[in-house]
Request: fold
Amino acid sequence: MRAAGEFEQVFAAVTKWRADGLYPAGGGPLLSANRKQIADFALKCRLPSMGNRGWFVEAGGLIFYGADESDSYRRVAYYVDRILKGAKPADLPVEQPTKFELVINLKTAKQIGLTIPPEVLARATRLIK
Reply:
């Protein structure tokens, strides 16, 4: 999609395909600005939805699992500090995330008739009620 006007066309296609879930891939400004509309569509169609950012779950999506953004930004700040102090970027090691978060929207789960197993709830870093 390249414009917000294309959402209805995409939503119609998802409905026609009888999707079992929704994963709005990407995190660009178009999806970010329309996260509520996307989450509302998934809820209306009773589709489990997984976002690639925690804000999607806050907007009404069902679940997010991924790198902890706050921790990732702290690591970026560390690298910027090292570079500003004279380190050569090519000499700095490449890092992968080590801290992850699992965010679950219990209100959405209830509205779509989904029961989240207790084992999964116990692993959640944040529950939205």
